[in-house]
Amino acid sequence: MKPTIQWSFDAALPAIALVIFSLLLFAMALNLQPTHAWLCGSYEDGTSCVRGLISEFQTLLTGLAAVAAATLTVRAMIKTELENAKRHRQILGATLRGEARQVDRLWARRLPPLRHASQVFRDVLEGLPSKVGPAGEKALMVHSLSSAAITAALKIKGEFHTVEWREAEHLFDGQLAAAVDFTTTSLAELLRHLNDIDAETGSMGRKIATFTERLQIAGSGELMDIIEASSAKLAVEKQVERIDVGIVALREKLPEVLEILQDVLEGLGRLKERYSEVDI
């Protein structure tokens, strides 16, 4: 657009110069004696030479005046358009610089926690056993892993509500916005599984201790002691079964969350690339 406007502006200058030059030549020629006699010879009846020429050539003169006026108008319009384009570029540049600073703050402050949380999920998935064990002997390890995953999940949820995130959220493309929404939904489901496992494994140690104590007492041969030991054993087995079911659900949910979280990280990478050439 700018080269076209500049070309129009340059092209108007010769037209203006031609009109002015033609008028000057006409005035000079009118002052020459031969030319004056030739042009004004037919106006010897007392009619003014200038008035007669104007009357005779008024269409031509009017046309030349119209061309000159149009040329000046076009020149003024082109100048105004150039000034508007310059102002638009300045406003656009200021807007882009502001958006680029928002993206830069988001990238610098919020991306590292997301990457760390993603790595925590990978470590949990790698260290999570397929079963807690017949007597819940791996309950403490599962409890530690679930606690770490809960902390990471809550950290991600918190990141989505930070000032830097809210400032840059309107710049997200559709794919990134959808990935963030899916991540929020998946994290809610993941936290439900994690909280269940965390609560079950946290109380597992007490039930195992109760079972061990009842088993020792049952050695005395008393019927009630044997019944209580059997009841404690049954409680441990049921809790182990619930934990194992939770572990299966967790091993299915964690890869899904990791995949969606990777989409978020890639979307932030695209956002950073989009503003990489803006000077902030």
In N-to-C order, the SSE pattern is HHHHHHHH
* Distance between the amino and carboxyl termini: 26 Å
Determine the number of helices (DSSP H or I, runs of at least 4 residues). Answer: 8
What is the CATH domain class of the domain at 112-274? Mainly Alpha
What is the tally of beta strands? Answer: 0
Class based on secondary structure composition and strand pairing:
mainly alpha
Largest sheet: none
CATH fold type of the domain at 112-274? Four Helix Bundle (Hemerythrin (Met), subunit A)
Low-confidence stretches: 213-227
- CA-based shape: rod-shaped
Overall radius of gyration: 44 Å
Which range best describes the helical content: under 10%, 10-25%, 25-40%, 40-55%, 55-70% or over 70%? over 70%
